[in-house]
Specification:
With about 450 residues, the protein is α+β, with helices and mostly antiparallel strands. The protein is built from 23 helices and 13 strands. The chain has a seven-stranded mixed β-sheet with strand order 3-4-5-2-1-8-9. Strands 6-7 form a two-stranded antiparallel ribbon. Strands 10-11 form a two-stranded parallel sheet. It is elongated, with a radius of gyration of 28 Å.
Length: about 450
C-alpha cells in the first residue's frame, strides 16, 4: 500500500533516515489517509531523540521536549516529530508519571489508544500495522490496542474518545472495548472539564451525533452530563411526541446541521422536562415552563464544562426560545425578531424545525407550513429593513430629553412603547409619527 503524504512530511522522514534514524507518519493521519480523508495534522514518530531532531533541522520549536516532541518547520508548515516512547505509570488517570524514550517502534505503537490510530507509514517500508488496525478499519470497528482496561486505566479520556471516534467514523465499538469503557466510565470524574468539553463537542458536530446514545447506555453521560440522564428516560404521553426525552433528543441532534451552538442547543433543549412534567386527568402529559427550566440547566452545564461566554449565551437563549410558539403573521414575527435579534433568528428557526422533525407525525405538515410562512415574513422584514430594536427607532432618548422628558424609567418606557407601535406597523417609524404618538 502506498499513501500520499505531504512533501514536508516526506522530507523530514527522508532526512531522519539519511542520518541513520527510523521515521514514519503515524496515528490519525495514517488512518484518515487510508479512509480517503484529508488529515488535519501530520504527525511523525522517530527513533531520533528530540535533541538529535533539533540538530538535524534548522527551524524547530520546542513543543514538548519532556514528552519527546519537537515541531519541525518546513516552509510555513509545522510537523510534530515525536521520539518513540514508553509511557510510565499513570497516577491520575490522564498523564504518565514519566516518559521513557525507546528505540522500538512496536513499543511506541502499543501504548496508543485504538488499533486504527496505531499504524505507521513511510514510502520505503509501506504500512506498519502491528495490531490489526487495517482489519478494524475494514470491519468498521473501534478496538483498543491490547487490553481495553489497561488503555482506559492509563487515560480515562480515552473512554470518551472511543465514542467520539465511533461517531466521526460511523464505526461500531468492539465488544470488549465497549464493556471496559462502561465499567471504567466513573474514572471520567478525574478528567478536567476542558478535556470533556472538547470531546463532547467533537462528538456532537460529527456526522453521527446520535452516538451520544452510546455514551448514555455506557454510563458516560451519567458522569459528565448527569442532567441528561435525569431527563432521558422521561416518557412524553402527548400527541406531539412518540418517544422518551432521550430518544427525541437523539433525533433532534440529527435534524440540525453540525454547528456547535445548534447541536448543543438540541442536546440540552428538553432537559427541564423532568422537573416540569404534569399529567392531566386524561393521562396526557404537559411540560409547562420547560423551556425556561431547560435554559437554566443548560447554563449550569455549560459553565461547569468551561464553555466560553458567547457560546453559553447563544445556547441558553436558543434553549429558552425553542418552545415559544406564535401566529404566522407579520407583526408576530417582527416581535419575535425583536426578541432574538437579527443574527440569532435564523438559528432559532433551525432549532424549531429540528424540534418539529423529531416529534411525532401529529400535525407535522401543518407545523412545517407554519414555519415556512414565518420564514417568509422574516425575509420580508429583513429585505424591507424594518425596525426591530430600540436602536433602530427614528426617535432617540436625546429627542425626548430635548422635549423635557428627564432621563430615567419614564423615558425608557416611552421608547419601548414606540418600539411596540413600530413592530405592529413599521410605517410609523418616523420621528414625526412617534413624537405625535407620545404627545410631544
Amino acid at each position: 500500500m502506498r499513501l500520499k503524504i505531504p512533501a514536508g512530511a516526506g522530507l523530514i522522514i527522508q532526512k531522519l533516515k539519511e542520518h541513520g534514524f527510523e521515521a514514519y507518519v503515524v496515528g490519525g493521519c495514517v488512518r484518515d489517509r487510508i479512509l480517503g480523508r484529508e488529515p488535519d495534522d501530520w504527525d511523525i514518530t522517530t527513533s531520533a531523540s528530540p535533541y538529535e531532531v533539533k540538530q538535524i533541522f534548522g527551524r524547530t520549536v520546542d513543543t514538548g521536549l519532556r514528552h519527546g516532541t519537537v515541531t519541525v518547520l518546513i516552509g510555513s508548515r509545522g510537523f510534530e516529530v515525536t521520539t518513540y516512547r514508553i509511557d510510565g505509570e499513570y497516577e491520575d488517570g490522564r498523564h504518565p508519571k514519566e516518559v521513557v524514550f525507546t528505540g522500538s517502534l512496536r513499543e511506541d505503537l502499543r501504548r496508543r489508544d485504538f488499533t486504527v490510530n496505531a499504524m505507521a507509514y513511510n514510502d520505503d517500508e509501506g504500512l506498519v500495522d502491528l495490531f490489526g488496525g487495517m482489519a478494524d478499519l475494514q470491519r468498521h470497528v473501534i478496538r483498543c490496542v491490547g487490553e481495553p482496561e489497561e488503555r482506559f486505566g492509563e487515560d480515562a479520556l480515552r473512554i470518551m474518545r472511543a465514542v467520539r471516534f465511533a461517531a466521526q467514523l460511523d464505526f461500531a465499538i468492539d465488544g470488549p472495548t465497549r464493556e471496559a469503557l462502561a465499567r471504567l466510565a466513573p474514572d471520567l470524574g478525574k478528567i478536567s472539564a476542558e478535556r470533556i468539553q472538547a470531546e463532547l463537542v467533537k462528538l456532537l458536530v460529527s456526522g453521527h451525533p446520535e452516538y451520544i446514545g452510546i455514551a448514555w447506555e455506557a454510563g458516560i453521560t451519567g458522569v459528565v452530563l448527569p442532567e441528561f440522564d435525569a431527563a432521558a428516560g422521561v416518557y412524553q404521553h402527548t400527541p406531539h411526541h412518540m418517544d422518551t426525552v432521550g430518544e427525541h433528543t437523539l433525533k433532534a441532534l440529527c435534524a440540525v446541521r453540525p454547528d456547535k451552538v445548534l447541536r448543543l442547543a438540541m442536546l440540552l433543549h428538553d432537559l427541564g422536562k423532568a422537573e416540569t412534567k404534569e399529567t392531566d386527568g386524561d393521562g396526557v402529559d404537559h411540560f409547562p415552563g420547560h423551556g425556561e427550566e431547560s435554559a437554566r440547566q443548560a447554563g449550569k452545564i455549560l459553565r461547569r464544562l468551561k464553555f466560553d461566554n458567547g457560546t453559553i449565551t447563544n445556547v441558553v437563549n436558543l434553549v429558552r426560545w425553542h418552545d415559544i410558539r406564535y401566529e404566522a403573521e407579520p407583526a408576530a414575527v417582527r416581535r419575535m425578531l425583536s426578541v432574538t435579534g437579527r443574527e440569532m433568528f435564523p438559528l432559532y428557526m433551525e432549532v424549531q424545525r429540528a424540534d418539529v422533525l423529531s416529534q411525532s407525525g401529529y400535525k407535522r405538515e401543518e407545523k412545517l407550513e407554519k414555519l415556512a410562512s414565518i420564514q417568509r415574513f422574516y425575509e420580508e422584514a429583513q429585505s424591507a429593513g424594518y425596525c426591530i430594536s430600540l436602536q433602530e427607532l427614528s426617535v432617540t432618548g436625546r429627542d425626548l430629553t430635548a422635549r423635557g422628558i428627564p432621563a430615567g424609567p419614564e423615558l425608557g418606557a416611552m421608547l419601548k412603547d414606540c418600539l411596540a407601535l413600530v413592530l405592529e406597523d413599521p410605517k410609523k417609524n418616523t420621528k414625526e409619527e412617534l413624537l405625535g404618538f407620545l404627545g410631544l
